[in-house]
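Subgroup meeting minutes
Present: P.N., E.W., G.H.
Scribe: E.W.

1. P.N. recapped why we're keeping a running log of single-chain structure predictions: easier to compare across weeks, and new members can see raw inputs and outputs side by side.
2. G.H. added today's entry (213 aa).
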Amino acid sequence: MTEPGSHEFTVASTTDIHIGRVVGLRVDEVVMPGGGTARREVIEHLGAVGIVALDVDNTVTMIHQYRHPLGHRLWELPAGLIDHAGEDPVEAAKRELVEEVGQAAESWETLVDVAASPGFTDEVIRVYLARGLSDVDRDVLGEEEADLVVRKFPLAEAVKMALSGELVNGATVSGILAAHLVVVDGAPSRPADAPWPDRPTKFAARLEAKNGS
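Output recorded in log:
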């Protein structure tokens, strides 16, 4: 047995179970500290971005969106997938802000990186603070987008919603609380292009290899 904290969790073997459009599921046999192996189910994800779009009066734009796994609509930040491995996350965030709520922003800062559930998925979402907002034309791209309800909330009210359980989306809760710390309490944010060491890459690489074959 190795000293706690020193074991290298190598993968003895891996099996692909499902490779879909947005996620992949694989099962790894991971070498454990005692010398045996343990099965670990891993959901691979493209990675995503979320946006705290903040007006000059400290109101934040959120959307009411149906989430099928939970079976009801949630209040969430505008967000979306990073389409491919080489896409700049800030550009993805700009795209999603236009597509979902019809807004553009002059300035961008990194608030938080959120590992959705690291016990079984590599999904990590980067949440940005966007300011200097202006309205732009919004193209409704599908049935889900057409169903979105867009509403602005005072940032202080959004914080209360997070603490009361009205907001449950992890990136939304984290982003709202972080934005309050930055905007109201003066906590430092990071540059929009700050390093993102935990950005998911495996699933995007799979799709590009598949599409290129």
